Amino acid sequence: MRFLACLSYDGSKFYGFQKLNNQKTIQGEIEKVLTKINKKSVTIKGAGRTDRGVHAYNQVVHFELDIKIDENALKSAINSIIDKSIYIKYCQIVDKGFHARFSAIEKTYEYMINLGEYDPLRNDYLYNYNRHLDIKKMKQASKYLIGLNSYKAFVTGHNKTYLSALYKIKFSQNKNILSIKFVGKTFYNHMVRNLVGALILVGENKITVEQIKEMLIKEENIYHYNTVPASGLYLTQIRY
Questions:
Q1: SS3 of residue 173 by DSSP
Q2: Which residues are catalytic?
Q3: What is the mean pLDDT of the chain?
Q4: What's the mean pLDDT in 45-73?
Q5: Per-residue pLDDT at 85
Q6: 106-239: CATH, from 3.40.50.10610, 3.40.50.2300, 3.30.70.660, 3.30.2290.10
Q7: Helix 71-81 vs helix 26-38: angle between axes, to the nearest 10 degrees?
Q8: 236: which residues sit within 8 A by CB, 6+ positions away?
Q9: How confident is the model at residue 31 (pLDDT cuts 50, 70, 90)?
């Protein structure tokens, strides 16, 4: 029987999502618990492999179980023994054709930046940038990133393709905390963190709004933005 599980987790407590030898990971912890419940080895597939330090409100995984168990009973069983930095929000029986990653239509990531005074208590949960940014210019620059594009200039590592679609980039601010939401089809390695790093250069008035478009077209990090810290990144929603 194939199940879907939606979960949230505190990424600061793990070495990322993907299972690693001798390191504590999201995948490793979930598989350990499911194997105990199933009494037979279980492998999970996730909608996205978040990096070390990246958080999730609504990550989705799928897996197969040999036992018959009610969805709510499964949720309770997992939460009763899993690491308390992970929480299963719900479980659902799905058909054999469902895949947590490949069946996804849309994903939303949110990046949090502290523009105010340094906050040591939230350092694992946002980017303590602690300076002023020209948000108006950042918004203008972000419009060049919307649509179907090759995002090679904003991806770390090598892929067969860098093509994706960004449907929306939304800025909001609550006091000194700036939030930037990215809604799109596919997100590659460090893509959101690199996009934020490039937009920060605009906000610092170190590059122009149009130079974001230039990097997109030339497919190269020609203005040397920095990859922002993982601590500010959240996987917030996946739509199927």
A1: strand
A2: 51
A3: 97
A4: 97
A5: 98
A6: 3.30.70.660
A7: 120
A8: 56, 57, 58, 108, 109, 110, 181
A9: very high
